[in-house]
Amino acid sequence: MANLTNREMPEGFVEIQMALLDAIERADRTSAQAMLRTWAAAHGPERLLAEVIEPVLAWIGEGWRRHESFTIAQGYIAAKVIEDALDQIITPSQLRSSENATGRPAVIGNIEGDFHSLGRRMVGIFLRANGWNVHDLGNDVPGSLFVETALQTGARVIGVSAMTLTTAHEIRKLRSEIDNRKLAGRLKLAVGGAVFVVCPDIVDQVGGDGTAASALHAPRLFDVLWEASVSAARPAGLSAAQGVLL
């Protein structure tokens, strides 16, 4: 495996970040889980997400985008380590809603044919922590179900995830579903997943209204798209947020 720890890390909690990367490199899920559990007990699950997990994933993703210091095998281990943390350390009930919690509904899921749930689950956690009422449809979701759930719940933003270029193109079917039902102004489409980090131009190709650089930035993107939806419903509204990148 490539040496993950022989590169500059982001500023912050470097010691735990480096330890996590070392555990990923050694495929040691047990020690990774133990160190993350200990750190979360001392600092809280919110800080574990924002100051350890998110920076490490962002660093890995940037290296992957540049084709440096990261292998598919390490990507698999990284995903499993973080899934362990989400399953056994961090739960939505542990996260405080922000003071500006709105209770706005949002629908998220992986597009039809996609089963890579890690990114979507992290987005859901950050959205809930920021006061959103998240309806998570899970993996392999057809476009019609996204739209129907959004209409039933009053959601103005649909968040759809895809890991690969092949599954990302399935998002076009969801775009067509929205457009054919004349809901383009009412429903905004946030897209995300590894392929959008590597190839940002795909956002426009699949009909997305915006993407975020990471799960940590997803709540801000959803805020922007929600306001664009509300504005589009007004006679003198603002233009849609097509192509916004946060």
> Which sequence of SSEs, written as H and E, runs from N to C?
HHHHEHEHEHHEHHEHE
Strand order of the largest sheet: 2-1-3-4
Query: What is the CATH superfamily classification of the largest domain?
Result: Cobalamin-binding domain
What oligomeric assembly is this protein in?
single chain
What's the CATH class of the largest domain, please? Alpha Beta
What's the pLDDT, averaged over the residues?
A: 82
**Which overall shape is indicated by the principal axes computed on the Cα atoms?**
globular
Please provide a brief summary of the model.
The protein is α/β, with parallel strands linked by helices and 246 residues long.
Walkthrough of the structure:
The chain is α/β, with parallel strands linked by helices and 246 residues long. The protein has 2 domains: 14-93, Methyltransferase, Methionine Synthase (B12-binding Domains), Chain A, domain 1, CATH 1.10.1240.10; 105-245, Rossmann fold. The chain is 51% helix and 10% strand. The chain has a 4-stranded parallel beta sheet with strand order 2-1-3-4, with helices on both faces. A two-stranded parallel ribbon has the order 5-6. The longest helix has 21 residues, at 45-65. The two termini are 32 Å apart.
Comma- or semicolon-separated keywords:
Methyltransferase, Methionine Synthase (B12-binding Domains), Chain A, domain 1, two-stranded parallel sheet, Rossmann fold, alpha/beta, single chain, globular, 11 helices, 4-stranded parallel beta sheet, 6 strands, 246 residues
Task: Present the secondary structure layout.
Layout: H1 14-25, H2 29-43, H3 45-65, H4 72-88, E1 105-110, H5 118-129, E2 133-136, H6 143-153, E3 157-161, H7 165-168, H8 171-180, E4 188-192, H9 194-198, H10 202-205, E5 210-211, H11 218-232, E6 244-245
Parallel strand pairs: 1-2, 1-3, 3-4, 5-6
Helix pairs in contact: 1-2, 1-3, 2-3, 2-4, 6-8
